[in-house]
Write a structure and sequence with these properties.
Number of helices: 1
Strand order of the largest sheet: 4-3-2-1-5
Number of domains: 1
CATH architecture: Roll
Radius of gyration: 13 Å
Distance between the termini: 29 Å
Number of strands: 5
Shape: globular
Strand content: 35-45%
Amino acid sequence: MNKKYNLPELCKYRELSSSEQMAVHQMLISYVRENHLYNIVLPNNAKPFNLIKLVSINFENESSAIWINFKTITGESFALPIDLISRIEISGQEEI
């Protein structure tokens, strides 16, 4: 569960009720607006991404997909679909 909003794992987004999905949307939007760095935890014990800034969220209505765009502290940009993310945790550090 996500500590901030007490949500299930993000990779199970499609299984959530519409009100739970709306809570996920609000959480993601707030993470983009906040000036924090995050740790992106992936399912199945895959190596996490640490100290990542959430740059933007793309909500795609036709495919019901959500893509989350990130930037590393070294300036590398990448995107992941919500289905591949277990959870997003605040790293405890702010971007300078």
